[in-house]
Design goal:
9 strands; 31% helix; alpha+beta; 4 helices; 3-stranded antiparallel sheet; 162 residues
Length: 162
């Protein structure tokens, strides 16, 4: 069941998929349409899920499920990953590579490999004040405070030069 994202409980489970590039307007229209159709039919062992999504910065797809309504299962999570894989094939993008890291450079969002991120940190091109996207968060409540943070407040800090 597709609901308004803001109406979901803060305890709702989220998954963040970052694209290695921004979506075009045409891609965005198709992605939104397909996600809405998917969520309308998204099930856990035959039971509907209360879910929603957001697209942030034309580059991040955030899926959310209110597990107080119905918990997700492995099969329902797999089906959402399959949807992301369909987008990858259709638009020649990378949404599921967890070894890509995202950070902000002024108004630009950069997606780079983890080894490149580590090298940038060693060269002080990325510092404790660099804004990073902590895509490891798993609750809707964390979006506001713990998703877009400085590197010193995220798992990224392990790569910073002291």
């Amino acid at each position: 069941m597709l609901v308004n994202f803001e109406s979901l409980a803060d305890s709702s489970k989220i998954w963040i998929y970052q694209s290695n590039r921004g979506f075009s307007d045409k891609e965005l229209d198709i992605i939104c349409s397909k996600i809405e159709s998917f969520i309308a039919e998204w099930k856990r062992h035959g039971d509907g899920l209360k879910a929603s999504y957001q697209i942030k910065y034309n580059q991040f797809i955030i899926l959310a499920v209110d597990e107080d309504y119905n918990e997700v299962s492995g099969c329902s999570i797999d089906s959402s990953i399959n949807l992301m894989k369909q987008f990858e094939r259709a638009f020649d993008i990378d949404l599921t590579n967890k070894l890509n890291v995202s950070f902000r450079d002024n108004d630009n969002i950069n997606i780079i490999s983890l080894p490149d991120f580590q090298n940038f940190a060693k060269q002080n091109k990325i510092t404790s004040n660099t804004v990073v996207f902590n895509n490891m968060i798993s609750m809707k409540a964390d979006l506001a405070e713990n998703w877009e943070v400085t590197a010193d407040k995220s798992w990224h800090k392990r790569f910073l030069v002291n």
